[in-house]
Amino acid sequence: MINLLPPDAKAQIRAARGNVILARYTGLFGVVLLFMIASFGVAFYITLHDKSQAEADKQTEEQASASYTQVKQRAETFAKNLSAAKSILKNQITYSSLLIEITNTLPRGTVLSGISLSSASFGKPLSLSGRASSYDTALQLKTALAASHLFGDVSITSITVSQGGDPLTTRYPYAVTLSATLTKDIPTADSGGPSQ
Fold first, then answer.
1. Contact 133, 173 (CB under 8 A)
2. Reduced to 3 states, what is the DSSP secondary structure of residue 57?
3. Residue 38 in 3-state DSSP?
4. Rounded to the nearest 5 degrees, what angle is found at the Cα of 151, between the Cα atoms of 145 and 154?
């Protein structure tokens, strides 16, 4: 087929076809651009929403954390107090155990009738009062206390004899007064007894 159109018409037709293709591409580009703008808008909205939600969660967590901080501080204070109490109780003198230890050192035929113990008693001379069934037993009391790990520098201050009266005096007529230094080797709360 022979094309009889003049060259100007041919150029106009080609330009028109090119314009139609360009218009289609421009329209397609506009649609794609609108889609991208919409996508970015939706993403921006979601990001803003997530940001506000995260800030609200952060504020809630900070409030909860503040209340937990107070609880944590109280727990730490309580733990420190327990630690201090434990160290105090660990070194606390158990006078009941000390008296049992002293009683276990007494020989048969003797009783301890008077002793005054305090934290100031340790390392210093103190006075002990006891009773014995005989003079020899009174001497054995001094020897037993001196041999124990609880006392040092044990000496007899006086031995007197008293007759009659109450059952204690009848059974243990010899009153013994001793001077002794209480050592530091005593039962504490953590040991449950004296060290040997």
1. yes
2. helix
3. helix
4. 65
Compute the radius of gyration of the chain from its Cα atoms: 51
Distance CA 156, CA 142 (A): 7
Q: Quick: pLDDT tens for 129-161.
A: 888 888 888 888 888 888 888 888 888 888 888
Q: How far is CA 191 from CA 5, 93, 120, 160, in A?
A: 123, 10, 21, 38
Structure tokens at 40: 């970015």
At 40-90, the pLDDT tens digits run 999 999 999 999 999 999 888 888 777 788 888 888 898 888 888 877 777
Instruction: Please give the span between the terminal C-alpha atoms of the chain, in angstroms, as a whole number.
Output: 130
Q: How far apart are CA 32 and CA 108, in angstroms?
A: 112
Helix extents (H) in 91-153: 95-105, 135-147
- Centre a 10 Å sphere on the Cβ of residue 54 and count the other Cβ atoms it contains: 10
CATH for 95-182, options being 3.30.310.70, 3.30.1360.100, 2.30.40.10, 3.40.50.2000: 3.30.1360.100
For the whole model, what pTM was predicted? 0.47
